[in-house]
Specification:
Shape: globular
Oligomer: single chain
Largest sheet: 6 strands, mixed
Helix content: 25-40%
Strand order of the largest sheet: 2-1-8-3-5-4
Number of strands: 8
Number of helices: 7
Strand content: 15-25%
Length: about 200
Amino acid sequence: NRVEFVISKEVWKRHQYLVNAFTAALVEWAKYIPIRQTIYYDGLPPFVGEAMPDAKNCKNAIKVGFVDLQEEYDFDKKIIGIWLPTPRRLLFDVDYFQKNPEEIFSVALHELGHLFGLPHIVNRFEPGSTGYLVLAEGDARDYVMYPTAFADRPQNQLSEIEIEYARHQVTYILSLDQLMSRQECQIAFDDTKSMR
């Protein structure tokens, strides 16, 4: 499963620490799940002999952006990261992470988990909604996929449960998605103007 990433030069220059933390989270997931990732920087010349992918021409492109989520969307509560599968967007709240840069890695791990097919993990008697993975024993707060809105201690370490679940999802679901579309999955970093 090959996943290609395109990061615009403007986004990289404006939010380099966010892009670096997101890239580190992606590399962490890639250690455990069967993906081959390539990152291209749009607007910079490619290495000799390489073709620059054009994410705009790929119907499966996932746009990743650092935007003001509170202004962009009308949420009931403060959202700092979100995976929107229907418009295929992975978004992070730039204002929040400018004030809390140490949290981007754990939130990026969490949101990439959603992108790779993982639901939230909650404890048995916690309020949740359908689609949550409920633990019969242990503490869900020890997992990356615990809802960040409730997390008092964000996690930076993927668990065996999360890794195995994601491995299954990527192996079977993503492969099927790519087969159906006959295109490689691409994830594109775009600036906020192209996200609107």
